[in-house]
Amino acid sequence: MMIPGVAVAMGGQDWIVPPLTLGQLRRLMPKVRQLTEIGAAMGEAQINVLIDIVTAALQRNYPETTPDRVEDLLDLGNASAVLNAVLTGSGLKPSGAAMGEAPALGTSPGAGSGSARLVSNMISGPATLGEKSMVSSRPPVDTATP
Questions:
Q1: pTM for this one?
Q2: SS3 breakdown of the chain: % helix, strand, coil, rounded to 5?
Q3: Average pLDDT of the residues in 76-85
Q4: CA torsion sign, 77 to 55 to 114 to 120?
Q5: Which residue, 90, 99, 93, is CA-closest to 3?
Q6: For residues 119 and 127, which has the higher predicted lDDT (pLDDT)?
Q7: CA nearest to 55, candidates 41, 39, 68
Q8: DSSP character for 135?
Q9: What is the structure's pLDDT at 143?
Q10: pLDDT (0 to 100) of residue 91
Q11: Is 97 exposed, middle or buried (0-12, 13-18, 19+ CB in 10 A)?
Protein backbone atom coordinates (compact mmCIF):
# COMPACT_ATOMS: atom_id res chain seq x y z
CA MET A 1 0.00 0.00 0.00
CA MET A 2 1.35 3.42 -1.01
CA ILE A 3 1.90 6.12 1.59
CA PRO A 4 -0.02 9.24 0.49
CA GLY A 5 2.10 12.02 -0.90
CA VAL A 6 2.52 14.41 -3.80
CA ALA A 7 2.58 13.06 -7.37
CA VAL A 8 5.59 14.30 -9.31
CA ALA A 9 6.82 13.45 -12.79
CA MET A 10 10.37 12.14 -13.00
CA GLY A 11 11.98 10.13 -15.75
CA GLY A 12 8.79 9.94 -17.80
CA GLN A 13 6.58 8.49 -15.05
CA ASP A 14 4.63 9.71 -12.05
CA TRP A 15 5.97 9.01 -8.58
CA ILE A 16 4.12 9.43 -5.28
CA VAL A 17 6.52 11.34 -3.01
CA PRO A 18 5.51 10.83 0.63
CA PRO A 19 6.60 13.09 3.48
CA LEU A 20 9.73 12.21 5.42
CA THR A 21 9.28 10.34 8.68
CA LEU A 22 10.21 12.24 11.84
CA GLY A 23 13.34 10.10 12.12
CA GLN A 24 14.35 10.91 8.54
CA LEU A 25 13.62 14.58 9.12
CA ARG A 26 15.72 14.63 12.29
CA ARG A 27 18.67 12.97 10.52
CA LEU A 28 18.38 15.07 7.37
CA MET A 29 17.60 18.50 8.88
CA PRO A 30 21.28 19.59 9.03
CA LYS A 31 21.54 18.71 5.33
CA VAL A 32 18.25 20.44 4.49
CA ARG A 33 19.64 23.67 5.92
CA GLN A 34 22.61 23.46 3.51
CA LEU A 35 20.32 23.89 0.51
CA THR A 36 20.19 27.54 -0.45
CA GLU A 37 19.52 27.36 -4.17
CA ILE A 38 18.19 24.82 -6.63
CA GLY A 39 19.45 25.46 -10.12
CA ALA A 40 22.52 25.54 -12.31
CA ALA A 41 24.51 27.30 -9.57
CA MET A 42 24.24 24.32 -7.20
CA GLY A 43 27.50 22.83 -6.04
CA GLU A 44 28.29 19.13 -5.74
CA ALA A 45 27.52 19.15 -1.99
CA GLN A 46 24.06 20.64 -2.59
CA ILE A 47 23.32 18.13 -5.34
CA ASN A 48 24.29 15.27 -2.98
CA VAL A 49 22.02 16.69 -0.24
CA LEU A 50 19.13 16.97 -2.69
CA ILE A 51 19.64 13.36 -3.81
CA ASP A 52 19.83 12.14 -0.17
CA ILE A 53 16.59 13.90 0.81
CA VAL A 54 14.61 12.76 -2.23
CA THR A 55 15.96 9.19 -1.95
CA ALA A 56 14.93 8.97 1.72
CA ALA A 57 11.38 10.11 0.92
CA LEU A 58 10.98 7.89 -2.16
CA GLN A 59 12.22 4.79 -0.33
CA ARG A 60 9.09 4.88 1.83
CA ASN A 61 6.98 3.99 -1.24
CA TYR A 62 9.70 2.52 -3.47
CA PRO A 63 12.10 0.60 -1.18
CA GLU A 64 14.28 -0.45 -4.13
CA THR A 65 15.11 3.21 -4.96
CA THR A 66 18.82 4.00 -4.79
CA PRO A 67 20.65 7.34 -4.76
CA ASP A 68 22.04 6.45 -8.23
CA ARG A 69 18.48 5.99 -9.55
CA VAL A 70 17.33 9.29 -8.02
CA GLU A 71 20.36 11.04 -9.52
CA ASP A 72 19.22 9.84 -12.95
CA LEU A 73 15.59 10.90 -12.34
CA LEU A 74 16.21 14.43 -11.07
CA ASP A 75 17.01 17.25 -13.45
CA LEU A 76 16.94 21.05 -13.36
CA GLY A 77 13.36 20.95 -14.63
CA ASN A 78 11.94 18.87 -11.78
CA ALA A 79 14.37 19.18 -8.83
CA SER A 80 12.65 22.16 -7.19
CA ALA A 81 9.18 20.66 -7.56
CA VAL A 82 10.29 17.31 -6.15
CA LEU A 83 12.13 18.85 -3.19
CA ASN A 84 9.17 21.14 -2.47
CA ALA A 85 6.89 18.08 -2.52
CA VAL A 86 9.09 16.34 0.06
CA LEU A 87 9.53 19.35 2.35
CA THR A 88 5.95 20.63 2.18
CA GLY A 89 4.62 17.12 2.79
CA SER A 90 6.97 16.88 5.76
CA GLY A 91 5.48 19.98 7.38
CA LEU A 92 8.17 22.47 6.40
CA LYS A 93 6.09 25.39 5.22
CA PRO A 94 7.54 28.43 3.54
CA SER A 95 8.02 31.34 5.91
CA GLY A 96 6.64 34.69 4.92
CA ALA A 97 4.84 33.74 1.70
CA ALA A 98 1.76 31.70 0.99
CA MET A 99 2.30 28.63 -1.18
CA GLY A 100 0.67 30.12 -4.28
CA GLU A 101 2.18 33.58 -3.88
CA ALA A 102 4.37 35.02 -6.61
CA PRO A 103 8.07 35.42 -5.81
CA ALA A 104 9.16 38.79 -4.45
CA LEU A 105 10.11 41.56 -6.85
CA GLY A 106 13.76 41.57 -7.77
CA THR A 107 14.13 37.84 -8.30
CA SER A 108 15.53 37.14 -11.71
CA PRO A 109 13.20 35.30 -14.05
CA GLY A 110 14.42 31.89 -15.08
CA ALA A 111 14.10 28.21 -14.49
CA GLY A 112 13.04 27.62 -10.93
CA SER A 113 13.92 31.03 -9.48
CA GLY A 114 10.60 31.20 -7.63
CA SER A 115 10.93 27.61 -6.48
CA ALA A 116 14.48 28.18 -5.28
CA ARG A 117 13.24 31.10 -3.16
CA LEU A 118 10.39 28.92 -1.87
CA VAL A 119 12.87 26.20 -0.92
CA SER A 120 15.19 28.65 0.84
CA ASN A 121 12.18 30.11 2.70
CA MET A 122 11.18 26.61 3.80
CA ILE A 123 14.65 25.85 5.00
CA SER A 124 14.88 29.00 7.09
CA GLY A 125 11.43 28.41 8.60
CA PRO A 126 12.09 25.61 11.11
CA ALA A 127 15.22 27.30 12.45
CA THR A 128 13.11 30.12 13.86
CA LEU A 129 10.79 27.94 15.91
CA GLY A 130 10.82 28.98 19.54
CA GLU A 131 12.08 32.49 18.91
CA LYS A 132 9.98 35.20 20.45
CA SER A 133 8.12 37.51 18.13
CA MET A 134 7.33 41.08 19.00
CA VAL A 135 4.50 41.24 16.48
CA SER A 136 1.75 40.96 19.09
CA SER A 137 3.42 43.19 21.67
CA ARG A 138 1.54 46.31 22.59
CA PRO A 139 2.97 49.60 21.36
CA PRO A 140 4.51 51.96 23.95
CA VAL A 141 1.90 53.96 25.82
CA ASP A 142 1.81 57.64 24.92
CA THR A 143 1.80 60.16 27.72
CA ALA A 144 -1.80 61.16 28.36
CA THR A 145 -2.57 64.81 27.71
CA PRO A 146 -5.31 66.43 29.83
A1: 0.62
A2: 40, 5, 50
A3: 90
A4: negative
A5: 90
A6: 119
A7: 68
A8: T
A9: 55
A10: 76
A11: middle
